[in-house]
Specification:
The protein is an all-beta fold. 0% of the residues lie in helices and 45% in strands. It has a 5-stranded mixed β-sheet with strand order 2-9-8-4-5, with no helix packed on it. The protein has a 4-stranded antiparallel β-sheet with strand order 1-3-7-6, with no helix packed on it.
């Protein structure tokens, strides 16, 4: 529907495909992760959740063990990242009506942002985990379409054991939109999304 004129058009039915996502999208072995399903059948059980361990599909230990979808087909469950090597691992979830979705979770380096949207000039704290031990995070190792220096929040931001660091950046002058903030220590990298918008005009999901 064109909200300015009220005109409408119909191009046939819309196909809804189930999907799953992870929050956070990456982490280290033993981290707690939320698994979120969308677009499944309404008010049914999610009967199987399995992941590919490199050799076979095996059950993923989630809580609750049999989530129930809402009337909108949404469901959530929690799990710990299993003891696997760094890499991407496919998860497949299937409900009682045979609706199924798959997505990869990542075991490896990750970054988290204390704020994930704001205007140009926003000060953002980045926490990184799982990076290379003994490697310093230097000016230019952080990028957002352009590379820029950061403000240290600790005297030592080296990726030392347990391979973690905390830094701060100032969002550079870029057009409004969604950008990946990436930290790359030269061996390992990780990204997280940030949305630039005008001051006071936060997006509505």
């Amino acid at each position: 529907r064109d909200i300015s004129t009220g005109d409408t058009a119909n191009d046939g039915p819309v196909t809804m495909n189930p999907s799953i996502e992870f929050d956070p999208s990456a982490g280290l072995v033993g981290d707690d992760v939320e698994l979120i399903g969308h677009g499944f059948a309404a008010e049914v059980d999610v009967v199987t959740v399995e992941y590919w361990n490199g050799a076979a599909y095996v059950p993923l230990d989630i809580s609750p063990s049999t989530p129930e979808t809402t009337e909108l087909g949404r469901w959530t469950a929690d799990f710990e990242l299993p003891n696997l090597a760094f890499g991407d691992y496919e998860v497949v979830a299937t409900d009682d009506d045979a609706y199924s979705a798959n997505e990869d979770f990542t075991i490896g380096a990750s970054i988290t942002l204390d704020i994930d949207e704001g205007p140009v000039g926003t000060l953002v704290q980045i926490k990184g985990r799982g990076f290379t031990a003994g490697v310093d995070i230097l000016d230019g190792d952080v990028s957002m379409g352009v590379k820029f220096p950061y403000v240290e929040t600790e005297d030592d931001v080296s990726s030392s054991s347990p391979y973690a660091f905390t830094i701060e950046i100032v969002i550079p002058s870029l057009p409004e939109g969604e950008y990946d903030i990436t930290v790359d220590d030269g061996v390992i990298s990780a990204s997280e999304e940030f949305e630039i918008h005008e001051d006071g005009s936060a997006s509505v999901e």
